[in-house]
Amino acid sequence: MFNDLDFKKIFPLMTFESGEEETCRKYMETRGIYLYKQVYDALATWMPNVKEIKYKQFSNLIRYDKGIRDKLYIYLAAAEEYLRNIIFEELEIDNRPQDSTKIKLNISDLRTRTVEERNEESNLYYYSYAKNFDFGLIEKVFQKFKLAEKYGLIQSDIKEVRKLLRNKVMHHSMLLLSCFTDRQDIEKEIKTLEKGVEALYRLLPTLELREGSSVDGRISGGLTQAINKSNYPDGDIMKKPYDNIICLHKFKDGRFIL
User: Fold this and answer.
1) How many angstroms separate the most distant Cα atoms in the chain?
2) What is the mean pLDDT of residues 68-85?
């Protein structure tokens, strides 16, 4: 499909090592030429007076972005699962439909669970399959019943994770670039993403999910390690980073640092 494309015309600054151009054409068939053109243009405008864009640097950015997206997906799921469970523990609804996948949950129908209902079956749990039971609804439920304060969370963190992070991760498009190619716009987008990641960190329920666990003296797992490992060998921010020039900053103690 792309064998007859003139790469010199489309990517004039791109240089290839042996076999890399064939690899580029191969993966372009699934990822698309327009994605490749955006990444190329972003790198070209990021570096002033650039005379060469190596294919390795180009492909590393695509892999790095996908790696960050994939890892954030995992921790977003963990945070959402935790928030949903809080709702099921704290609230209840008086009826349980036969098939909740065909209906919507009305927040006005919710009430606080009684002491007697604790540890029993939950009607509300089955509404998690309702058409509108998404992160946006979770945010509204937490707001109405003031659940964040009760569990030591910050209500605005739920909003920021939904608005700044979750929707973008779920779209499966370039996360760091968004719809931009100019450096100034991309830098703003990265700051927005980092704000969302910091909010996600605060929503995660356990230290292990936030920071990982120690195995034979080495840290394994956790959001912090997942973020840093994408751009630093072994996730160690004291080591020399990989050659990704468009990337998130170092992540430590729930904050991004320069």
Assistant:
1) 72
2) 96
